[in-house]
Amino acid sequence: xxxxxxxxxxxxxxxxxxxxxxxxxxxxxxxxxxxxxxxxxxxxxxxxxxxxxxxxxxxxxxxxxxxxxxxxxxxxxxxxxx
Amino acid sequence: xxxxxxxxxxxxxxxxxxxxxxxxxxxxxxxxxxxxxxxxxxxxxxxxxxxxxxxxxxxxxxxxxxxxxxxxxxxxxxxxxxxxxxxxxxxxxxxxxxxxxxxxxxxxxxxxxxxxxxxxxxxxxxxxxxxxxxxxxxxxxxxxxxxxxxxxxxxxxxxxxxxxxxxxxxxxxxxxxxxxxxxxxxxxxxxxxxxxxxxxx
Lengths: 82, 201
Hints:
A: mainly beta; 3-stranded antiparallel beta sheet; 8 strands; B: mainly beta; Sulfite Oxidase, Chain A, domain 2; 6-stranded mixed beta sheet; 5-stranded mixed beta sheet; about 5% helix
């Protein structure tokens, strides 16, 4: 089982900063977890899932030229301000 | 970013015959497992296959009814959008034609839906004509859960993300509705011979 730390580099590319210590709220069950601790599956793209209810939190697809990010499953993401 | 790079390396790598290996693909003898979520283990006595949506009447097969349908063993090549292709894969299953002939509909699109919540959209025309199956056997054995058992969709003329694992039915729709990956970057259609990997390809 991969966790969010395994895709730290990809997420840094998406958010422009390290978000593994940021906390996300699951839109489905409202559980709050550090991004580095959520479950990760790698298929055609990367899928982050809530470790409590299994719902999709985030989907990231990367081509050579573009990134797509679906955040519908994430109600909120709390980061430390820089 | 290594975790999403095109990194699945087969034992044998090569370009292969150009009439069988689409552009940008390499050959593998392995059968990589890619999943968007945990593997469901649905017992066959709790499995059914349903065609719903824009249909005159919902049509449903239990596992036993499904297995009693005419089936075939056949050999096809498969092409994953992560760039591996695998030649001469042997499957056993039921043609979608056999299922769709029981259904009256006036619409042109289907969304396959699955245990675990995965979806993918395919035009009905691509599911007809002996080009698509619901398969339950691979290489002479029952299909392993990690490869989509008890049953998966198989549409080998499109990229393999269309061949949805753990399929439970089709929802017929008037418009082409993007599925799990198609709604976030992957191509609505996914023809490997035209390298339709992403939006706009």
